[in-house]
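Lab notebook, bench 4. The sequencing result for the construct came back, and we need a structural model before the next group meeting so we can plan mutations. Quick request posted to the team channel:

Model the 3D structure of this chain.
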Amino acid sequence: MSTLPRKISLLRSATLDDGSLVDVELAGDVVSAVRPAGTPSSSPASETIDLSGFILLAAPAEPHAHLDKALSWDEIEPPMGDLGLAIDSWHAYSATMTVQSMAERARRAALLLLRNGTTAVRCHVDILAGDEPLRGVQALVQVRNELREVMHIELAALAGPNVPSADVEAALALGVDLVGGAPHLADDQSADLQRLLAIAVRHGVGVDIHTDESLVGDYTLAELARSVRDWPLSRPVTAGHCVRLGTLDGAELDGIIDEVLASNIGIVTLPITNLYLQGWQHPVSTPRGLTAVRRLLDAGVRLGAGADNVRDPFNPVGRSDALETASLLVTAGHLTLVEAYTAVSDGARSVMGLDPAGVFVGAKAELLAIRGDNLADVVANAPADRYVIHAGRLVSYSEVTHHTIMPERSSAPVELLLEKR
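Done. Here's the predicted structure in token form:
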């Protein structure tokens, strides 16, 4: 495997999700040709990867991560519970963190995502309390710069209701890309939402707002949609979570979805974390913490899906694998396999404002090749054998060998079984 090329001109004998077998030519960071497998090519062998037995897909994108929090569960040992408990645990621990400690965990978390195929990440980074509120921003800017050649990372400043506007603007000055926040935590949700939008307008940047992260109470998605309806496309608007939307039905739900469509807001659903955090107060017939994914898709809303938190106070589990998110969208969200994978790939890229990627001419060469028979196989089993391609270059690969040793008393042949799956 040490002879694998970094620069790639040809991916040979790849299986697409429709079952067709193709050769894919790359020109720099773009797919330049897709032809039937075995078509003669002038691409040098030194720039070719044989993908026999692999499914080739658009690489996943993670539209809503918290790399500054990720992998902190074992360090914090927080109580398990709802959003309020998670916030309290995080605030207590964050006071002890240094730029170096946050950067180290964020780097590990980003590389776990990359190893599993995610080549683009939008990360919300907390503006912290205390004398050094931008420690997290400094750490994530550092990690983004370190990993610039192997993955795309963009940052949103997560400003709680008590964070001064000056600190948000200071984060933008350090290189943060978007204004973020959580108006649902404010005493006056509308006032906090309008404050955040005003900062974004002053600086000409987009917003990615934690929106209506509760199963009950007031909600602000409709106000967000009305407020940004006239924003230019160069200032993207994203609403994450939108859990409250999943509790509505009928004309009320349809009216909000119409507002979302009119404003071109991208919605991000986060099944792993929201299924964990929501519903603790309902031990019987526990409601599920998902937004209205079926209705949003059917209406034509741009929908992306992500993991949100991974092994921190907001979610004790998570494998940093978009296939885990896709699988949950099938089981908990009742999406089809194609819809579920699209949500973590094409849909996520659309919400993030990234160019389309995939196996078609003109697409960005952001690709994941994963050993398997078809899309159902890879979503169900998440095989570890993978090639990850970012900007037309191989940036990660994994290869696993399983060993099965039959006991001597077994009636089966006594042998060492090796299976590369």
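Residues 6 and 394 are 5 Å apart (CA to CA).
Will bring this to the meeting.
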